[in-house]
Write a structure and sequence with these properties.
The chain is of the alpha+beta class and 82 residues long. It contains two helices and six strands; from the N terminus they run βαββββαβ. It starts with 16 loop residues before the first strand and ends with a strand. The chain binds zinc ion.
Length: 82
């Protein structure tokens, strides 16, 4: 699969556990906080209106679009945190 968003993430993001982060949880974060999607680099900050995913340590973030596009090749395990 060729995609401009794939830049070697398979070395550290395969089979990892992710949690779903809902917009109301994102809204509670500081206005100083922001992250970028690991794939498309979209900015995710506290005004972000869509659910997205992050690694259990809050370090890696993935937007919904990239999650849906790459979930089959990355084999992520989603943990429901509610
Ligand atoms: Zn993305």
């Amino acid at each position: 699969m060729e995609d401009w968003r794939l830049t070697g993430q398979d070395k550290y993001m395969k089979n990892i556990e992710l949690k779903l982060v809902k917009p109301d949880e994102i809204k509670k974060r500081s206005s100083l906080w922001h992250e970028h999607c690991e794939f498309c680099m979209e900015t995710i900050d506290n005004t972000y209106k869509e659910p997205c995913y992050c690694s259990m340590d809050d370090y890696r973030w993935i937007c919904m679009q990239c999650f849906n596009d790459f979930k089959d090749i990355f084999n992520w395990v989603v943990t429901n945190n509610d």
